[in-house]
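User: Fold both of these, please.

Assistant: Here is the first one.
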Amino acid sequence: MAPISEEATERRLRQLVAFASIVAAGILAWALSEALDPSVGSRPSITTICLLTGLCVISRLTHVRVRVRATQHSTNWNSTALLVTLAVIDPWWAVIAIAIGAPIAAILLRLPPTKFIFSIAKELVVAGSGCFALAMLDITRGTPPTWRFILSQLVIYIVMELADDLVTIPVIAVASRTPVLQRFVDNFDIKLLRLGTQALVAIGTVIVVSLSPQSVMAIPGLALSFHLWYSNRIRARSDREAWQQLAGTTEGLNDVNLDDVLHLGITHAASLFSVDLVEIAYYDKSGERVVRGDAEHVDFDGVTPNTAPASIEHTIAIPLHGSDDSAVIGELRLHFRGKVTLSERERYTLRTFASALCTALRNAAAYAELERVAAEHAHAATHDSLTGLTNRRALLDQGGKLLGQRNEHGVMALLLIDLDHFKEINDSLGHAAGDQVIIAAAQRLRATAHPGDIVARLGGDEFAVLLTGLPAPAVATHRAEQLLATLHNPVDIEGMRVGMEASGGVAVATGTSGMVELLRRADVAMYQAKRAGDRVAVYTRRRDGGEVGRRARDGERPPSLASQQFAMTYQPIVDLADGQVIAAEALARWRQTGQHADDPHAAQDIVDRGALVPELRDAVLNLALAAAADWREAGFDIPVAVNIAPHSLLDPDFPSSVIARLRTFDLPADRLVLELTETLALTPLEVVQRVLNQVREAGVRLTLDDFGSGYASLAVLSQLPLQQIKIGQDFVQRMETSAEAAAVVRSSVELGRGLGLTVIAEGIETETQRRILWELGCTAGQGHLFARPMAASRLVAALHRGSGGRPGVLADPLHDEGAVIRIPTARRSIGRGDRLPHLPA
């Protein structure tokens, strides 16, 4: 139901007052015509008129006040005074006495004009109803107080009270905007109690006056006692209801939604304090929010100047404090159309309500913040942080659901996209430029994709688009071409136009294939496109034939890991000068079912490309550390070196996992050497640097493997927590025939020595290579010259056996004990075309 406007309320009030005034004027005209007719009755004395007028004034002033909004309503004893007046003088003279006393009482009460007129009109209407009831009952003054007389007086009193309510209650209902019937039934038991009490006093007074006019002096004291008792009863009832309403109101504010709390605060405060208008100003990060309304509805919620409506004459404001009572989070404002003074109970209630509102607002704000953070975390869990696209996990989840409802979404296909030459952009222009390329690619794919498609970033420079609603499988290729075409336009980066190209593979969803299989097929198609130099390739089973071997091996990994179907071998690392074994490198050899262990690099290749990195890594670490513990018990306390896949450096939990395993095997941290690939070890990713530092701080030694084959610079290398570097076997084996390889070996040795790092050479197969490396300053090496990779138990046996009767030594020393060793003091530069000399022993 639409709320009643202020203008409509005022208009209805004026109509009711005008109607009551017209009726009152008619009653007064009748009384004057009867009083001026000498043939009707006798005229009372001036003293009697004055006494009865004073009685009417006193009864009007003796009242119990009730505030409704800015209006004060009262219950008085005017019906009692009128009943006594009708018992003493003729009815028309009683009306005239009321007409004289009512204005005097209104003046003494300082009523505003409208209330002044309504008060006089109401008193005359009540008096007229009493005269009408008296005439209908045909009671003669001076009649002895029989039961019929007493009942007649009770009827007259009830008629006057009903007339009073019929005139007053509609006006109160319109002013308070409440149903008339509700105003009649509110506090009905109190009304009955008041009616009975005042009727008893009124009828008793009439009886006393009729029996003994002198006894009228005792009536004021008795009436005052009844009045005080009734007033206290009304106040106690009002206070009890106020506390009950306060308790219900504060409980109702226990909501976690900020909007609901503000709106409930408006309606509850308006009802609790009988306010014309309530306003709550709430301060948050976005500024001041103002909510305004009354007991029925909220009519404003937004940003507005701190000004009350023009009809408001009086405002009571109380600040809303934060949890520390210093910061103000808002203000509660009670607006009235007239001057209002709150009682002590109302002021305490206001403070209690404001405190409850503060708590509710703080709780709602805290809950809103928790929801915001939870929403951010939920979004971050399913979206790529750089581009905002769906991530791999969300693509698999959402795509799986769509595939399960493929009848509703038509033909679907997955397009896997890989940016070409992206590594060169990163290396030449830096990672910031690479990020801009990735963002540009994401924006183009999102803009070109159709509604319903899922665009995702899988990681690095790899994207995926799940195409939905395709009318036919053949359309997938056309859609893929459109998407890839948008990626073949240059990107503007800091004033430079950087070219961007991409390759894609399309796999159409068929049968019951899930997202994982669909992603695998698209991956196969994408690599086919790259190898063929095409922009897009579509997956077919025939094209999958080239990947059968690798896929079959990947498919065997879970049972292989469970049954330990990979072999661990260890290749000793020796001191080049004396042949002493100083460490051993662990090599994981993959073993196909029913076959011998294959190439040791195959297992590492599977790890780098597979999804079971943590499982295989942990298995290799466990076996390597167990072997080192066995060597230690056998008397050979040498470190074991383990190759770590690049993915491990992206795992924040990797350092704690390594430390836990060292404790399990009771090995010092420096008995473990982690060999890192140059590409990822030198990346500026924060997580990689943090993992490397944590491992090094624990005491684990770090080696940079295949040094010279990557893109390491002196500036970056000097910042890594390394202890040693390894020169790849390709350079070692070609250094005698290739000037470039020789230069790499020499510069690597000199760089390592300059940084205080131990330099280890891999792939040493001849004594000449060993001697040249030692002369250059390389102190350690490994290769077939010393020993091939072997099982841990065979390595222990080889160490016990030794060389030349010396345990722990696998090669003769370069120089006899006590010999004078001459090392060249100057190293000549090796230019292009030069070869390393064969230095004499």
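And the second sequence with its predicted structure:
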Amino acid sequence: MNRAMTLLWAVLLVAVAIFLTVAVFGYRADQVGAASPPGSNPMGLVGAYAAHFLVRSWGVVALLAPILALGWAVVLWRDRDLDGVGRRLTGSALLVPAMCGLVHLIPDEAATWLLLRWDQSQFHGLGGALGNVLVGPDGVMRQLFDVAGSILVLSLVAALALVLMDLGLRRYVRYLWRSARHHAPAPAEASEVPERLSTEPFIAPRPAPAKQRATTSINELAKRLSDDSTLPPDADELVQRIRRHRENLGRGEGSGSSASIPAVTASEPAASTSPLMTAPAPMPGPAVSEPPPVAAAPPPPRPAPPRRDPVTAGGEYILPPVDLLHARKERRDAEHEHEKHATGKAIEDTFHHFNINVQVVAAARGPVVTQYELKLLDQGMRVGKVEGFEKDLAMKLGTEGIRIVAPLPNKTTVGVEVPNKVKEAVTMRDLVEEIDPATMALPIVIGRDAVGRPLVSDLAKMPHLLVAGATGMGKSVCMNAMICSILLFRRPEEVKFIMVDPKMVELAGYEGIPHLLCAPITDMTKAHAALEWACRTMDERYEALKATGVRDIKTYNDLGEDEVRARLERKSLSLDDLPNAKAHMDYIVVLVDEYADLMMVNKEVEKSIVRLAAKSRACGIHVILTTQRPSADVVTGLIKSNLPSRICFRVVDKNNSRVVLDVSGAENLLGKGDLLFLQPGTSLPVRGQGVWLKDQEIEAIVEHAKAQGRPEYDDEILNVGAIAMSGGGGAAGGSAPAGGEWITDRQFHGAVQAMFRYDKTGADFFRRKCGIGYNKATQYVEQLEDLGFVGPQKGTASREILKPWDQWIDLLKDNGHTWPEDDDTYHDPFQGPGV
């Protein structure tokens, strides 16, 4: 049952409860039958007959019907646990006759007017026909147990019914008892202490304590402190802090955090947090003859994980608090056990029909699928034969998305993953609170696996990631979750982003966060420049690692600035001698949202990406690629060999699944975040459910990051001339002119002349006409765009020429460039050579 249907049933039950309540309270005996004059019920003729049936059958207990309907409506509306529906309905069915019998034993004189109004005198009581059958003058129970025995038996049945219904009455009783104890008067000896101090203001109450904790008054505490032999070293400071807190309480300022105030309550030794005592304080009564022994100084408190509270560690940047994320909705565990039992039985029957004897030995429920472990009872059965029954199980169970893992890793059983009827969303907040980011350099949250364990990985160890899947299957949500994971745990001085966004809108919301090296790149001709810059940065970092004698970025950063300079001095070097070298290297994450689209514009980018993926791990540069077209011409063998970590959502066929994961199975996923995760060093993918991150959560994290500072963009990243380098993916023909070198580059001028002569532009055109490589031709296009002669790329259409030939000649002359008069490169292309 989906949420909309559940809410509809809740509304209908509320309407039924209101209808029955008004009908029963407005019921009179003359509203039905042939009474003259006939009465009228507020709910009309239907309400009159409904009330007549309930009242004649149950008597006063008819009022229990709308109460039961309202209770079930509240349960459905609040999406509470509905486990054991049959047991609870049985309890309701037992409660009605028990209450009818007990009410029927009430003397008639107690409600004579009601008997006359409802015409119940023939039943000799308020329990209606059911109560009369049970405990009436000729009732069954009255003849067997008499009145006293009937009361006892009916009371036991009513109690059993309440237990079966599981209304949580014990929890409410405990709550009322704790509330009564909490508001009890303070001990006599603490009468001079303010009430807020004598009722444990310094420590938070523990859930369901084993015993009520006794309080210790200031007078008793001063008495214990009077013995110098029991004073700890910080006793005087403790007393002063207690007095200051009492003064704050008197002024109404005592709402501060309890973690900064010493506890003055005595508790069990195992749970004591007081630096003065560990033995329980005496209850009100005679004074203690001697103070309890002094406990040893407590160990220093364990530091909280960085994610628990926003802290400013080593700078002014404050990490986003976990409160920005939405809490998980209350779990719906209705009928889970029944569903697992029924599905396990269906799996066994299906295999039995094919003469394969299996036994379901375990079932682990995840948020979307449940993994059933099967034991093969026939020792001669081949495991590979079991894998071919996915479609048969899907037809038997009436569902899709079934996956068979034969065998399970490190086990002697076969796994069958079956989608749950009631699915649960995987929220970011729960996963963030479960992990310890201090153990990972670049923690990224992916989701939960098939049995509910967190899927969290360290990008620095992956070290690169490929995310593939059809449109609408969850790639964008997964990508946003990974970006937000890093923003939640790492400051701008620790990690930087280069984002390539061919869709132009997917990553636009992150523009302005201080973690960016440049604005999200939407022009694909500039994306190659950014990748080439990353290649050059990788080479420069390796020079720094080599000069300092370390092998990776973590060891380099652990050295510290003084040690880095000392090692360089031993080689007669300094940081200034190394290009762009720093004493601390930040991690760089290169994120390409749609790799296939980038390949369509410039296939040379594959060389840069392959080069980064092959070498950049040790220097802290990591690549994340996403694509919705995981075909063999996009996800090539070089890409797969250098990106060992891959996430695949649902794809159109098994061929695409094999391209990404080397195995089939992704074509049978459910979609909406259902994924297969191939971890590095493994050959068998793990099934999981991607985390669901709402737009409001992403906006809150981004706004928090923007409020901490502004990005410092590096213009050199998109400067095509500055990033072209030997071995950086360039093609034959050298490099494009850097800086002002385009003024004297004759080959570049010839490309411009051909552009005006044929009224065409683009990398393919320059490559054919000038006989240059694709990479250099692309750089020529970028240079012309920077000079304002061609417009930006608009889809697959050709770029527009914005300025005439005369302005090109004027630009050359303004920059001091001269040429011979007979040089055809500078003649007007529209008038022919030599004119």
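The mean pLDDT is 77.
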